[in-house]
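Q: Focus on the shape:
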Amino acid sequence: MSPDSHSCHQHVLKWLSHFNRTIIAGEPAAGESTSLFLDDSYWRDALALTWQLDTISGKADIMARLRHTAKKTGLSDLAIDATASPPQWVTRAGIDAIEAFVTFNTDHAHCRGIIRLRPVTDPDMTPSGDNTQSRPNWCAWTFFTAIESFIGFEEKLGRNRPSGASYARDFRGPNWLDKRNAAQKYDDHDPAVLVVGGGQAGLSIAARLTQLGVDTLVIDKNSRIGDNWRNRYHALTLHNQLHVNHLPYMPFPPTWPTYIPKDMLALWFESYAAAMELNFWTDTEMTTGKYDTATASWDVTLVQKDGTTRNMAPRHVILATGVSGIPNRPEIPTLDAFAGPILHSSQYHDGDEWAGKNAIVIGCGNSGHDISQDLFSGGASVTMVQRSPSLVVNIEPSAQFPYRLYDEDRSTDECDFITTSMPLPLVKKAHQHFTKQSKQADKALLDKLTAVGFRLDFGEDDTGWQFKYLTRGGGYYFNVGASDLLGDKKIQLIQNADIDHFTADGAVTKEGRHIAADVIVLATGYKPLEYLVAQLFGQEIADKVGPIWGYGDGQELRNMYRPTGQKGLWIIAGSFAQCRINSKYLALQIKAVEENLI
């Protein structure tokens, strides 16, 4: 039987009492230290005690690190967070536990965290004798610690927002707009931080840094803020729901549609940059960057659309281009024989241009499916070429399963915090569960696709679409109709291995069948970020940084939201939720460097 709210509260209080005596005071009673964590337990830290995004596994390693870092950081007693949801019985990654939000301080920061307690099952650890009342019978299964704000450098929001020295007006001095225009020119100084890319990643990190008082400039090669969405294909909308996708500080209006259209989003980006007082240069591209170790700053060259160049010396450069922005155009044998236009998906705009024509779309990710459906809806005859197995989930309900937490009666901030608190092994387990549910919910569709020869996969170890995104940036499709068209043979499907060669007017299969084409669209994604790093900074720095995105052998994303192998170079990318959450921790690291805290 699950414990009631009062029991949950009492179990948490008892555990915190033992933690504070054992870790903070360093005076545990016999056996107390062994009863704090389960053998199979996890501690994830977001800068609070290790100055890193880091995950430690196993009771012995957790205890050793905690004892060391508690003294080093000046860790204060942990207490239940009275401003958050009370301790309660929850299910995370398919496992039941008591979940409690806690607060604490270090010498430098206000912090908070989450503990999840499970009942002891090891008889050697079961309380007995005189110690029954003093020793806990619930141990930590997961432990999360995170910086909330630096003491003395809190964000300028709420009661801490700027109010001015008095209510007096300077009727002859510059007003707000004058000051904003002057700040954005950078006539007499360079920014501390240069953000390359003005999508959700660039806007999120710039907003965080601006609120921390770090001088930040965003540059984007497009002509308007939001063009990275505005200029994409005509029918594009987001594939996950409104309430998951807010930017920091300014949630989308509750009147907005569940799935946001691209142009609506683009207009919001413009409004967001203005409202958040972000310094932003459009029509500007960074072409080169060299790091000067003597000055601990970059020498970057910026080229504007009119040919004007500007050299700047920021201390930090943040790549916020999402994917690299470098289209991936794979070498496809005999494709150069095709006489018609060959468009990368980034060049595709509207299916109406190809009404009554024949089209071949190479690639089966979200873009490949969406473009195929758009072409079909515009009156084209479409053949999709599948190069490798792909994951397919219906946009509702299956694609939304990972976001169920955000449907609970909690604030977005609390949902974000719970999401961030989960260590990688448990996140994988949760997504295996979501994948199993998706297979059941989508069985009719998946059977239909298999029947027409579509090759399905469900990610490594059946971890589903989100881990495909985190490890390779694609390889999945949220079905909004294209899969049904494939299953009904309204969009034709062919495997890449079955194509013998391309001709001036299409392709010929190994069986001799001719597939006519007036246009070929390469929905083949983008090159990894490593290519952009090499292009901007040279291969030597790219080699120092190493692989970007994915997990490798670790439990944190490689080179994302944390220091890279090159001092002063940072990278942020991901979904709206990932950028909203991780921009906070990236901004805090840069602020700590700027204030010589680390």
User: Anything to note?
Assistant: The chain is about 30% helix and 25% strand. Residues 122-136 have pLDDT under 50 and may be disordered. The domain at 5-150 is CATH 3.10.450.50 (Nuclear Transport Factor 2; Chain: A,). The radius of gyration is 27 Å.
